[in-house]
Amino acid sequence: MLMRTDPFREMDRIVQQLSGSSGTWSKPSVMPMDAYRQGDEYVIAFDLPGVSTEAIDIDVERNMLTVKAERRPTRTSDGVQMELSERPLGVFSRQIMLADTLDTERIEADYDAGVLTLRIPIAERAKPRKISIGGESGRKQISD
Fold this sequence. Notes:
mainly beta
């Protein structure tokens, strides 16, 4: 039910890791994610450790889901000299094309322990339903 919109995104992520570059608003870094179906909803979990909820932006336009986040450097006092900085900083983004069978009007978002979790219900019209056959007239009736 989900499609990646850019097949080269994973290669970009690897290049960014090797080069040590951080994402910018014009060229954001990719954020890792998991997506799976759980009952009557799809669940998408994004890793965003160290990002405050105020720095996360979630948009849906038609069936395109966009998640953007920004992690800024932690503020240090004047006398601090950074010895090692490996945690990625900058802008992170992910776009996902959602299927028509998902109800984009009822998406729920939770953020806990550095993981943004989106729950997207499957639309009622996409759920399986039983079709019964009527009497001798052969009329069919759809039931939920």
